[in-house]
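Weekend entry, working from home. Most of the wet-lab plans are on hold until the incubator is repaired, so I used the time to fold the two sequences that have been sitting in the queue since the last round of cloning. Logging both here for the record. First:
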Amino acid sequence: MTAVDAPKAADNAPVEQVSLYDLFIGILTVLSLGVMAVQFILAPDAPVQEVLFVMDLLFCSIFLLDFFVHLIQAKPKRSYLWPHGIMDFLGSIPTVPALRFFRIFRLFRVARILRVGGPKRVLHEFTSRRAESALYVTVIMALLVILFGSVSVMYYEVRAPDPNIKTGGDAVWWSLVTITTVGYGDRYPTSAGGRMVGVLTMIVGIGLFGVLTSVMATKFLQPKEDAEPPATRADTEQLMAQLRELSERLDRLEPK
């Protein structure tokens, strides 16, 4: 192969599809590393530490599920387990702070995705695969609202004279129930700042699930696209010319 033929072969090579799922896991990895950094910065007895610990358990659950999904789909499984799978598994083990640094290796997936086609192609995949993108964006936004809502309400409630939300687990449970607009009423803020956080959490929760519902409904209700692309104007003109030629041949074959 000559130097001139090399670019042509590269252009004709199949383009690898961008994995929005791996990008989604990469974004969650960045969020979990941010939670880990805040845990190391804050004092061990800070009230917010318990909230961050519960959120870290939630991230670990997602990462463990991701590990087993990749392990089941991998063929052969040994090629996935070493070295990437082992790193993913170690970084997913909860309650062991030292192992959280293994999550950094998950960021290589994001770098690989961006190298496939660049940010423009990733943006194109997000806009063309709307239902999948909306699902991932909604999950990320929901986790962010739960995180910041829990931390904020915990900040105000620990200073209240008679708080109903007393632990980090209570704060995360309250944020989860509020964002889904379930409203059990077993946990609720009593301070003015906590109630303001509750109002914002409810408004964002309604917006998130409203957008997700509309996008998913549009995806399921829209008619399926044809397997073959629609005919262009040139195709139509070519078909008409063939029909005229066929008609002329039939006319010549008719007996006089």
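Second, folded right after the first finished:
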Amino acid sequence: MCTLNSEIPRWFAVVTKYKCEKSVLRALDQKGVKVCVPQQEVLRQHGTRKRKLLLPLISCYVFVKITAREYVKVLETENVAKFVSFNKELISIPEKEIELLKKIAGGYSHPIISTPLNYQKGDEVEIVSGRLTGLKGSLISIQGKRKFVVELKNMGFSLHLQVEPKNLRKAIY
């Protein structure tokens, strides 16, 4: 677990107020802070009208790449609630996990589907084809025949992904 460094910028998760991710993104960008909000395109229907919306992949989260001197600048930003921490220590997120979130958000307009018939809870799994190639994590649960839950350990939350059976295998370390 890496914490804030005075010279080397690292990625950290920041909790925002509800539905304020985009305003926090703009405010931090104006302050010169490197910020990332992975977003996905979602089709919503209101009556007979359909509308495409660009929504954050993870509600109430933005990710910032900062050094120690930018910490207060981020906290003072309007609609920022707090940094994600464990035992009062900030948890840095590896660059490859931020890239993975961008990859996940980068163009999946429909769910990925899987049949984890040969998998058990606790197995380390990996997606082996498609945009999500290289995703590794722990299989937390199997929900029905075509859905599994993968946990990304350093972010403090689980992502629920559906993957086609041909795109899944047990991870090899």
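Plan for Monday: verify the second prediction. The mean pLDDT is 78.
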